[in-house]
Amino acid sequence: MTWLGLAFLTAFFESGKDVFGKKSLERSDEYVVAGAWRVFALPFLIPLLLVIDIPPLETGFWWALLVSGGINVVTAILYMRAIRLSDLSITVPMVSFTPLFLLLTSPLLLGEVPEPAGMAGIALIVLGSYLLNLHRRDQGFWTPFRALLSEPGPRLMLLVALLWSVTANVDKIGLQHSSPVFWAIAVNIAIACGLAPVVLYRRATGRGRIGGSPGLLLATGFCGAMTSLTQMMAISLTLVPHVIAIKRTSTLLSVVWGHLLFGESGVRKRLAGSAVMLAGVLLILWA
Q: What is the DSSP string of 180-225?
């Protein structure tokens, strides 16, 4: 299936964005990296306007652009702050909860109703969240659940997952009123325009920190651009929860990259937890 290949490409580029973003955060603050994620995506997206047809833009397109663009400005900053505060291998897997939230938001916004078997997938996601913190079981059975909510990175990423369950549906509304590629370009422009004043203000007040290789920021933007394109094309071909579930396989790659590139510890236990969470996501996908 074409959508399946596009969804797995989305996962691959998503994990690349996580890696390059995490590396950039060593010398730049989260606002700068969040801005680069979208601004440096534009050189790879805007030229596509020369080779695609510009669709007629209806009122629904502009409302969707306002909502998705506005929320994604917030999530971009929260996302980068989350992976700065905590390990990739324990923070990024929290976005696996997006399909869980989609069980509520997709029926409300798009009328895409999942099958009852999706409840089994939810149970596996909860189990996976426990396994992510299994190395702390000596502090009591419920400690891992409390740790999941008390550590800043995972907590922020859980909020991002909730907000993304809204924007994923709004994105489908936007591309239905335009086209997948045009929507990917338009929404990235909107988010970049929303983030630019924040970054410039922080630079002007001396709080925005920029350092390291510009190539890392450009790589973050490239992966972000490819993620947007492949995700929008996949969403246009199937149900939103299907695509987002496959996209969440990026968490497995991020756990591995976190261990190999940043020396993050406990990877085997955390990888097992991520795998169980993703098994739940896949069960939701096939429900």
A: HHHHHHHHHHHHHHHHHHHHHHHHHTT-----S-HHHHHHHHHHHH
* Amino acid letter for position 63: W
Q: Which two tokens stand for residue 223?
A: 């992966």
Look at residue 208 and tell me whether its pLDDT is greater than 60: no
User: Residue 142, exposed/middle/buried by CB under 10 A (0-12, 13-18, 19+)?
Assistant: exposed
List CB contacts of 251: < 8 A, sequence separation 6 or more.
15, 92, 93, 95, 96, 274, 277, 278
> What SS3 class is residue 140?
coil
As a whole number of angstroms, the distance between CA 27 and CA 216 comes to 11
Residue 247 is inside which H or E element, if any?
Answer: helix 240-247
Nearest to 226 by CA among 1, 12, 3: 12
**Measuring CA to CA, which residue among 216, 218, 276, 229 is closest to residue 248?**
276
CA distance 172 to 169: 5
Q: Mean pLDDT lowest for which of 17-26, 32-41, 111-120, 239-248? A: 111-120
Mapped onto helix, strand or coil, the DSSP state of residue 132 is coil
Residue ranges of domains in the chain:
2-286
pLDDT in tens, 114-156: 677 766 876 787 677 667 655 555 555 565 566 677 788 888 8
CB atoms within 10 A of CB 78: 16
Sort residue 180 into left (φ over 0), alpha (ψ -120 to 50) or beta: alpha
Count CA within 13 A, CB hemisphere, residue 52: 17
